[in-house]
Design goal:
The complex is a heterodimer of chains A (240) and B (615).
Chain A lengths: L4 H5 L32 H4 L10 H15 L9 H21 L2 H11 L17 H19 L4 H41 L4 H41 L1
Helix pairs in contact in A: 3-4, 5-8, 6-7, 7-8
Chain B lengths: L2 E7 L3 E7 L6 E3 L9 E2 L1 E4 L5 E3 L1 H9 L4 E3 L13 H6 L13 E4 L2 E4 H20 L3 E8 L5 H13 L3 E7 H13 L3 E8 L4 E10 L4 E11 L4 H18 L8 H17 L5 E7 L5 E7 H14 L1 H10 L9 E5 L6 H11 L12 H13 L6 E4 L6 E4 L5 E5 L7 E7 L8 E8 L9 E9 L10 E7 L5 E7 L4 E3 L4 E2 L5 H14 L4 H31 L5 H19 L3 H31 L8
Parallel strand pairs in B: 1-10, 10-11, 12-17, 14-18
Antiparallel strand pairs in B: 1-2, 2-3, 2-4, 5-6, 5-7, 8-9, 12-13, 13-14, 15-16, 19-20, 19-22, 21-24, 22-23, 23-27, 24-25, 25-26
The chains are: A mainly alpha (240), B alpha+beta (615).
Chain lengths: 240, 615
């Protein structure tokens, strides 16, 4: 049960005039919009190498210039086949831009392509360097719930809130640290590609990035949950 | 092939516009009543004939149970969704409504797209009269925060009105397009669109490229059930309460409630330019409700409603990763932005004076006309990149929603998901598609359910790729492919709310029997309806004046009225609608002094603290 190899191996030929297209958005011979070649990825869509450091302005400029060409607005009077292709291509363009313009989304996508994106086995486990903070946070959250139930005095509430706010700062700065680390390893990945590093060392880099992503998603959840608790607490504090 | 137009299908008013080929400027087309605003009101006569627009609005006062306004609030919604609105809107929902709301008008029943289609037909007839040519294609605007079901309902309305809907465009984006053309602006723009029934905020970036100008929406947010309507209902509730305090309950008087609503709306409008105004309202049992309102008092009442618009504004900015001071232009759209408190609230938040150079009622329709010209190939140097307002997700284990396309993604947008079987010999995989930001399926909007059929086999063998695609109108398309056979997998998507294609077809066929009265015929019906209304009113006033104040009633004035009545009756029996209209005006003029005297008398007695019947 495998996909017929002929489809994947067939050289891309224009559906309209049969000229070779080389996977381009439009046929060079007749100008018709082309379907996506099988296996085309977001990097290839923009004509970019699979590198993780991107100039956002340059990417945006490519996005705009392709939007002019591929958007369904240009195909209202075209044949149904071309309208369909425009819809497919322009949605792919938007999906690709949305993914690649975000440095984290970029790494996730790259690892996904290589089959290297794996959720942590112990998703619920805190990274060791944060164990103490997470422990403290849980204590503060418990205290907060207790204080809410017993309608605790505003003084007690204030103390808990201050702790939560401190926790929020701490986790937000951890998140910034992780993002920096990810950017650093992303840079190493680009260098490895440039220097033609072997598959083993590339895999190692991808494993490192995968581990960072897992840590990042844990910290992000922490930041979000503290944020939610703080937001939900405001009216109680003001009302008391 | 006929003409292409842009249509703003609004909660309170609708408009139709086109882009002039001569100077490239968009223009709104006026109707037979001398205004470009077509009231979004539909009324069904006792004989089953239907009117929309101004004549329907007049019937709101005489035949409220056969007339409907603000139908946009019902688009794409199910009966359970609108329970709150039923408390304040006089919608008569057919109890048999299931996933599509059906409304009773007189003895006929309609879905909300059908009712909207009558408004679209009315507008279409304006444009056809104007061009002396058929109009068969349109760009229609929708609130940016409309979900898939609401968008589909709008597209269905267009089809039912005999229009090919080339695109649905978000209202604030359309406004930005009209403004950009007008002002040649660049940079980051916030469009604050507060209309009759909906509120939208969109943050855009206007970019110049070598190919032309790109209008890129960065984020959008809103509330599809928040508008000037809510202010009107608030005022109406307060006034009814005060009237009850005077000993009159309006509960059994729908006509009087509509009169009062009209008077309050007029007062609201007045307070946009004056510091105070007064309402004089004749009560059904005799007596009068007189009330002065200051702008300060109005502001106090409506502040909570205006505040409700600010949470979406903050969210939209956060999603665009911008601070208020990074917005370079603020544009106000929608009739409710004429309210001074709205302007000052927005100005304070952004720290800059908002733009309101273009008529806030017309600007959306003008933008729709520009987009229509773009799609027709007439404008090649403008491109609109809009976003989907709500995240798209599918239900997974435990009723949790997995988001597959995040909100504020540029459209068209797509996502592929791979599905397989979980147990041996499973023959189908159920898929539930939702829209919304909440974690659980029960808190999101159900869009559709469908089942992927698979041949029996071991668990995990089937591999079916489902593609979810949101098109440039913000409407979802679903397709599926069997990865083993590389074949398209057929699926039948059942919309959770709204009409399926077969139903639209059925309504279309049925409507042909009612259809397409020609222009003159429709004018005649409308003129006769108008005549009927004013004749009844004149008759009533005549009788009342005879009984109550015959000594003050000059004989020549009475004769003039009676002559005008007779002439209008005679004309009404004929088929010349222009003559009927002219005689309606004559009768109107003849009764003006009488109406003034009656109002003054009522007012004088009310101010003296006496009830009319005691005089």
């Amino acid at each position: 049960m495998s996909t017929p190899s002929t489809t994947a191996a067939a050289p891309a030929a224009c559906w309209s005039c049969a000229a070779a297209t080389g996977g381009a958005h439009f046929c060079a011979a007749c100008g018709k919009i082309q379907p996506l070649p099988p296996g085309a990825d977001y990097f290839a869509f923009f004509g970019l190498p699979k590198k993780l450091t991107l100039d956002p302005a340059e990417l945006e400029q490519k996005f705009h210039s392709l939007s002019w060409k591929l958007h369904p607005d240009n195909f209202v009077r075209a044949s149904e086949a071309e309208r369909e292709l425009s819809l497919e291509r322009s949605s792919q363009l938007n999906d690709a831009y949305r993914t690649l313009r975000d440095p984290v989304g970029r790494v996730e996508y790259l690892l996904g392509l290589a089959g290297m994106r794996k959720e942590g086995q112990h998703k619920q486990q805190a990274p060791p360097e944060l164990l103490e903070e997470v422990f403290e946070l849980n204590e503060s959250l418990d205290a907060l719930r207790e204080a809410r139930q017993s309608d605790g005095g505003s003084g007690e509430m204030k103390g808990i809130m201050a702790k939560l706010e401190a926790a929020q700062h701490k986790f937000e700065s951890s998140l910034a640290d992780v993002d920096q680390e990810l950017a650093r390893v992303s840079g190493e990945w680009d260098q490895a590609l440039d220097s033609g590093a072997d598959a083993a060392s590339r895999n190692k880099l991808m494993e490192r990035m995968n581990e960072i992503l897992n840590r990042r998603s844990y910290i992000r959840n922490l930041v979000n949950s503290v944020r939610q608790e703080l937001a939900g607490t405001w009216p109680v504090v003001r009302g008391s | 092939m006929g003409r292409t137009v842009g249509i703003d299908l609004g909660t309170t008013f609708s408009l139709i516009a086109y882009q002039s080929k001569r100077d490239g400027q968009p223009v709104c087309i006026p109707g037979p009543y001398g205004t470009t605003l077509c009231p979004s009101v539909v009324s069904v006569d006792a004989d089953g004939s239907i009117v929309a627009g101004e004549p329907a609005r007049r019937r709101l006062l005489t035949q409220p149970d056969r007339t409907i306004y603000s139908v946009k609030r019902l688009m794409g919604r199910g009966p359970a969704d609108v329970q709150d609105e039923l408390k304040i809107f006089p919608f008569r929902i057919d109890p048999a409504s299931k996933n599509v709301i059906r409304v009773r008008l007189g003895d006929r029943i309609f879905t909300s797209p059908e009712i909207s289609a009558f408004i679209l037909r009315e507008l279409r007839s304006w444009a056809e009269q104007f061009f002396q040519d058929t109009v068969d294609r349109a760009v229609i605007t929708v609130p940016a925060y409309f979900n898939d079901a609401q968008r589909q309902a709008t597209r269905d309305a267009g089809r039912l009105a005999g229009l090919e809907v080339l695109r649905l465009v978000n209202e604030p984006t359309a406004a930005a397009l009209a403004y950009g053309l007008h002002e040649k602006k660049r940079g980051r723009v916030a469009v604050y669109d507060f209309g009759g029934g909906t509120f939208d905020i969109s943050i855009l970036k206007l970019i110049s490229t070598t190919e032309g100008d790109i209008y890129q929406v960065l984020s959008t947010n809103g509330d599809t059930h928040l508008g000037g309507d809510d202010i009107d209902n608030l005022l109406l509730g307060a006034a009814r309460e005060e009237i009850r305090g005077q000993g009159t309950d309006l509960a059994g008087h729908p006509e009087a409630v509509q009169e009062l609503r009209k008077a309050l709306i007029a007062a609201k409008h007045e307070l946009s330019t004056s510091d105070k105004t007064a309402i004089k309202f004749a009560l059904p049992g005799g007596g009068i409700y007189f009330r002065e309102i200051s702008r300060r008092e109005l502001d106090q009442w409506i502040r909570p409603i205006i505040e409700r618009t600010m949470a979406p504004v903050r969210q939209a900015l956060a999603d665009a990763k911008l601070k208020p001071e990074e917005i370079e232009e603020v544009v106000l759209v929608g009739g409710s932005t004429r309210i001074p408190l709205v302007r000052s609230t927005v100005e304070q938040f952004f720290g800059r004076r908002p733009h309101a150079e273009l008529n806030p009622d017309e600007v959306v329709a003008l933008g729709a006309a520009v987009q229509a010209a773009i799609l027709e190939g007439g404008v090649k140097d403008m491109l609109l990149l809009d976003v989907t307002p709500l995240s798209l997700g599918i239900e997974t284990m435990g009723g949790v929603v997995a988001k597959i396309i995040p909100r504020n993604s540029t459209v068209p947008a797509s996502a592929q998901e791979l599905f397989t079987t979980g147990v041996e010999n499973q023959t189908g995989i159920d898929i539930h598609v939702l829209q919304g930001e909440r974690e659980l399926a029960k808190d999101c909007r159900s869009l559709a359910r469908f089942q992927l059929k698979v041949p029996p086999g071991p668990a995990g063998l089937a591999r079916i790729e489902v593609k979810f695609l949101i098109d440039a109108s913000g409407i979802l398309q679903v397709s599926a492919r069997d990865l083993h056979t590389e074949k398209e997998h057929s699926i039948e998507v059942q919309p959770s709310y709204g009409l399926d294609d077969a139903e639209v077809e059925r309504i279309l066929e049925e409507s042909i029997t009612f259809a397409e009265q020609d222009f003159a015929e429709r004018q005649l019906i409308e003129a006769r309806n108008e005549a009927e209304i004013i004749l009844a009113a004149a008759q009533k006033s005549l009788a009342r004046e005879q009984a109550e104040a015959s000594s003050e009633f000059p004989a020549e004035e009475r004769k003039a009225i009676e002559d005008a009545v007779a002439a209008l009756r005679e004309a009404g029996a004929g088929a010349d609608y222009k003559r009927i209209r002219a005689l309606v005006d004559v009768l109107n003029q003849a009764t003006t002094p009488l109406a003034e005297r009656m109002m003054n008398r009522a007012l004088a007695t009310a101010l003296a603290g006496k009830r009319l019947e005691e005089v």
